[in-house]
Specification:
- Pfam families: adh_short (PF00106).
- It comes from Ralstonia insidiosa.
- This is Short-chain dehydrogenase.
- One of its GO terms (molecular function) is oxidoreductase activity.
- Strand 4, helix 4 and strand 5 form a beta-alpha-beta unit.
- 42% of the residues lie in helices and 14% in strands.
- It contains nine helices and eight strands.
- By secondary structure, it is α/β, with parallel strands linked by helices.
- An eight-stranded mixed sheet has the order 3-2-1-4-5-6-7-8, with helices on both faces.
- Helix 1 runs parallel beside helix 2, helix 1 packs across helix 8 and helix 4 runs parallel beside helix 6.
Length: 291
């Protein structure tokens, strides 16, 4: 028996890295897994690994960034397994450059894959779950989004990626607020792991050790994602989890800090001193990635 027995999960970008680790872990916990990846052979390989271990899985290579093709992913899941209970939005790309060196294409492509890729499947499934709830069905569904430390703290050379990941964090808050009434939770995570996207930037730091605990193994993040997809997590929504090695934490987002209320409109000349006092009372800013 696993904590996800009978639950069907769609995982995007599941042909390698974190997505592969999630897919294998969900399969081991009894879930029906839809392994989505634009690389068909990679998706097939992960699906076969799940089935070889006694689990249930299908491969899919449809485009997550268009509603029409995203619907085909859902249709395939429903045809194979009857229903969808969990969506793990994991797929992503990088087009790293300093901000003033970014091209329009660099910006648009990262937004397309990350933000639109997080929108399409969640939008379609959200409608499906809402309609089912309104029809009287008991819905216990999950959206699990992928942000990043870059999205939470900024990252030098990754303004497009950081902006997209910050957008995903905000999207998660809205999804959690809007979909709770239909039995749907929405959470996000900022994982730190060795993947194809991180090896080029953090290659030496994330290199696997010759012995001992491999802190950057993607499999370290998978248990949290599986738990968030399980029925046990129904009371948790609107949270941003950070996961690295054996550490998990909940990130605090923007919140109202120290304030000064003049009780009247400020004059521009007064604001330097007022803001100086606010900055002195504020928590120190976290270090921006890459500095």
């Amino acid at each position: 028996m696993g904590i996800c027995d009978g639950r069907t999960v769609i995982i995007t970008g599941a042909g390698g890295g974190l997505g592969r680790a999630y897919a294998l872990a969900f399969g081991a916990e009894g879930a029906n897994v839809v392994v989505n990846d634009i690389r068909r052979e990679a998706a097939e390989a992960v699906s076969e690994a799940i089935r070889a271990a006694g689990g249930k899985a299908i491969a899919n290579d449809d485009d997550i960034t268009k509603l029409a093709t995203a619907q085909r992913i859902i249709d395939a899941a429903v045809e194979a397994f009857g229903e969808v209970h969990v969506l793990v939005n994991n797929a992503g790309i990088c087009r790293d450059r300093m901000f003033v060196s970014l091209s329009e294409e660099d910006w648009d492509e990262v937004m397309r894959v990350h933000l639109r890729g997080h929108f399409c499947l969640a939008n379609l499934l959200g409608k499906r779950w809402r309609d089912a709830s309104k029809a009287g069905a008991a819905v216990d569904a999950r959206i699990i989004n992928t942000s990043s430390g870059a999205g939470l703290q900024g990252s030098v050379g990754q303004s497009n990626y950081a902006a997209a990941k910050g957008g995903i964090a905000s999207l998660t808050l809205v999804q959690a607020a809007e979909l709770a009434r239909y039995g749907v939770t929405a959470n996000a995570l900022a994982p730190a792991a060795r993947t194809g996207m991180t090896e080029g930037v953090f290659g030496e730091m994330m290199k696997a050790p010759k012995d001992g605990f491999d802190a950057f193994d993607p499999a370290n993040v998978a248990p949290l994602v599986v738990w968030l997809g399980s029925a046990e997590s129904r009371h948790v929504t609107g949270q941003m989890f950070e996961a690295a090695g054996g550490k998990i934490s909940i990130a605090d987002g923007w919140r109202t800090g120290p304030e000064q209320d003049k009780g009247a409109r400020w004059e521009p000349a007064e604001l330097g001193a007022a803001i100086g006092k606010l900055l002195a009372q504020a928590q120190p800013a976290q270090k921006v990635y890459g500095t």
